[in-house]
Each structure stands twice: as structure tokens, then as C-alpha cells.
Design goal:
Order of helices and strands: HHH
Oligomer: single chain
Structural class: mainly alpha
Number of helices: 3
Radius of gyration: 50 Å
Distance between the termini: 141 Å
Shape: flat
Largest sheet: none
Number of strands: 0
């Protein structure tokens, strides 16, 4: 009886053989399905490579006349050099005209600033003169009031 109880207990509590069987089944199914998908992808890639190889031009440049190629390359380099020089000259001309325009703009802004500062200075001077006038009037009135009421 204790052997039966031990056997029942090991079947109820020991799940490793069942889990291992499920894992083997899952791996086998996964590999079979994935293997078919990968083989289809490889076949498609192989077709694309064969088509591309058939359409490509020969890449061997040794058959092309090297003298003609070197002459073309030299002419292209000369044309490129001339284009770079033209671009540099144009850039220098643009920069000098842009610099002159910026200087004129800054001069105009400075003139506006100076005029504004002059107006503000005149306004402050006018406000100051008014305040001095009010204060001098006020103190002169106070002095008159003081002389009226003082016995001396």
C-alpha cells in the first residue's frame, strides 16, 4: 500500500516527464512550420538573384578602353575644378554685397537709435525743467507765507 501511495504521490506532484513531452512536441511542430517558411523565402531570394544576374550589365571594366576613360575622367575633374572656382567667386561677390547691405542697415538702425535717444533726452530735460519750476514756485510761496506770519 505504501508503494501505491508513493506512486500516486509521484504522479500527482512530479510533472517533469509530462512537461518534457510537451516541450518536445512544441519544438518539433515549431521547427517543421518554420522550416517550410524559411525554405519558401530562400526559394524566392534565389529567383530574385537569378533574375538580377540576368539583367545586370557586365561589370568588367577591363574591356573598356582605358585611354578613353582616363581622358573622360581628366575632363570631368577639370570641369569640376572650374565649377568650384566659379562658385567661390560668386560666393565672395554675394558676401561682399551682403556685407555692404548689412553695414547700410546697421547705419540706418544707428541713426534711428540716435534720434530716439535725442527725443528721450529732450523729454527728460523738459520734465526736469517743469519739476524745477514747480519746486521753485512752491518754495517761493512757502517763503512768502513764512514772511507773512513771522513777526520779524
Amino acid at each position: 500500500m505504501s508503494a501505491d501511495v508513493g506512486d500516486i504521490q509521484s504522479r500527482l506532484l512530479h510533472h517533469r516527464p509530462i512537461i518534457n513531452a510537451e516541450i518536445r512536441y512544441f519544438v518539433r511542430e515549431f521547427e517543421e512550420r518554420r522550416g517550410h517558411r524559411e525554405s519558401r523565402l530562400l526559394e524566392n531570394l534565389n529567383k530574385m538573384v537569378v533574375e538580377t544576374n540576368g539583367q545586370m550589365l557586365p561589370t568588367n571594366l577591363e574591356g573598356v578602353n582605358q585611354g578613353v576613360m582616363s581622358n573622360i575622367i581628366k575632363r570631368l575633374e577639370a570641369a569640376n575644378h572650374m565649377a568650384v572656382r566659379v562658385q567661390q567667386r560668386e560666393l565672395e561677390a554675394q558676401q561682399s554685397t551682403q556685407l555692404q547691405m548689412n553695414m547700410e542697415h546697421l547705419k540706418d538702425e544707428w541713426a534711428v537709435f540716435v534720434k530716439k535717444q535725442q527725443r528721450l533726452k529732450e523729454q527728460v530735460d523738459e520734465d526736469h525743467d517743469k519739476a524745477v519750476g514747480r519746486l521753485s514756485t512752491h518754495y517761493s510761496e512757502m517763503k512768502m507765507d513764512l514772511t507773512k506770519f513771522s513777526p520779524f
